[in-house]
Amino acid sequence: MPFRFYVEVPTAPLDLNPARPQRHSGWWLLAFLSGQLDPDVAGLLPDDSAWRRAVVPVDEDTEAQVPLLIPDALGGQLAADALVAWLTRPPDMAGECAWQCLQRARQAWAARLHAAPPDDLPAASAS
């Protein structure tokens, strides 16, 4: 996991009140940052993690449960326009904290890239 954390599936479904997008947008933003949306990373989560159980099939007869989990517990996927609106429309302390989190993640990646030997650098993503 890039930043050594993950976010667990909430015990109560996320509130989808359009006037208060913090929980929905915040959960997805942290999930993106954690890397847990990648099945290989999800496989590193604790065995009792609801997210791991949803993403990683237990055996050949068990399919991943993400298609059920996303609408039921997570209120659907986060749309890019909803994320941008949350991050750019003040005043929202949670949105401000999210910006700070993103800035620190960027700094952490920069520090990691600066410290890593050339053979260990992650491949650049296409933009």
Describe the structure.
- There is one protein chain.
- The chain has one domain (22-118).
- By secondary structure, it is mainly alpha-helical.
- The chain contains six helices and no strands.
Question: Any chance you could write out the topology, listing elements then pairs?
Answer:
Elements: H1 22-34, H2 39-42, H3 50-55, H4 66-73, H5 80-88, H6 93-115
The total domain count is 1
Major sheet summary line: none
Summed up, the helix count is 6
Oligomer: single chain
H/E series: HHHHHH
- Radius of gyration using CA atoms only: 16 Å
Number of strands: 0
The fraction of residues assigned to DSSP E strands is: under 5%
- Residue-averaged pLDDT, rounded? 81
What's the shape?
flat
Structural class: mainly alpha
Q: Separation of termini?
A: 22 Å
Uncertain segments of ≥5 residues (pLDDT<50)? none
Helix content: 40-55%
Briefly characterize the structure:
This protein has 6 helices and no strands.
List keywords for this structure.
127 residues; mainly alpha; flat
